[in-house]
Amino acid sequence: MYEILNVLLLEDEVLIANDFKEIIEEAGNMHVYLARYYQEALEILSTHQIQICLLDINLNGGKSGIDLATYVNVNYKIPIIYITSYSDSATIESAKHTFPSSFLVKPVGKSQIMACIDIALFSSAQIELKNQKTIMPEIEEPIESAVNDYFFIKDNSINTKINFDDILFIESKRNYVTLKTLNKQYTIRFSLKKVFELLPKENFIQCSNQYIVNLKHIDSFSNSNIKIKGHQITISRNKKSDLFKRLKL
């Protein structure tokens, strides 16, 4: 689903955090961002595109993992897994109101962690598809030739015109892609590669295996991320050189 999966791990015990980081990154397609405190976690969330959070509950220095989960649910809506030493009824009662994907009690083995991450991401993807305003429309070929500045997609049995200039970015999600436009988003059963073939290459570039972006709508970028209308998109290492050439850097 993701070229590189960004994981936020909130854990104030350094040795435990490093052990979990090593276990998760052994999968090969995950990068773990470590935070020891609530505020550090907020900074990571604001500067990186995090897909899943693994949270200890009791932290030194004030706010808890449950406080962070509440914030994540309001602002990011990404899956949450608790990994904690506490399983008393009061802790569980507080945690369950943040709707975690899993609640793991330390000590936790590698197979448990990886299974919970896999299930949480799969469930999150299914929920997201169900919540789309347009479910599984089929994309149509352009009405005229490939030089046109639009194509049509079938939106609830209605052929809807999508102007290329209105597309902010396109995200791949398993067997679907989501087209994010200035006013709306559409999820269609189509591959990222096939969509890219329909787009004008002078305006669009693939910045990772997951994303195509419209160069006209890039607001800012760093060495690893692009920002478009409040959305942060990761640049993969093997696409970085081509992107920066297109941006004339």
Offer a concise description of the structure.
The chain folds into two domains: 5-131, 3-Layer(aba) Sandwich (Rossmann fold); 150-246, OB fold (Dihydrolipoamide Acetyltransferase, E2P).
Topology:
Elements: E1 5-10, H1 14-25, E2 30-35, H2 38-47, E3 52-55, H3 65-75, E4 80-84, H4 89-96, E5 102-105, H5 110-131, E6 150-155, E7 158-163, E8 167-173, E9 176-181, E10 185-188, H6 192-198, E11 204-206, E12 211-214, E13 220-221, E14 225-228, E15 231-234, H7 237-246
Parallel strand pairs: 1-2, 1-3, 3-4, 4-5
Antiparallel strand pairs: 6-7, 8-9, 8-12, 9-10, 11-12, 13-14, 14-15
Task: Describe this protein's structure.
The structure is a single chain. By secondary structure, this protein is an alpha/beta fold. The chain is built from seven helices and 15 strands. The strands form four sheets. The protein has a five-stranded parallel β-sheet with strand order 2-1-3-4-5, with helices on both faces. The protein has a five-stranded antiparallel β-sheet with strand order 10-9-8-12-11, with no helix packed on it. A three-stranded antiparallel β-sheet has the order 13-14-15, with no helix packed on it.
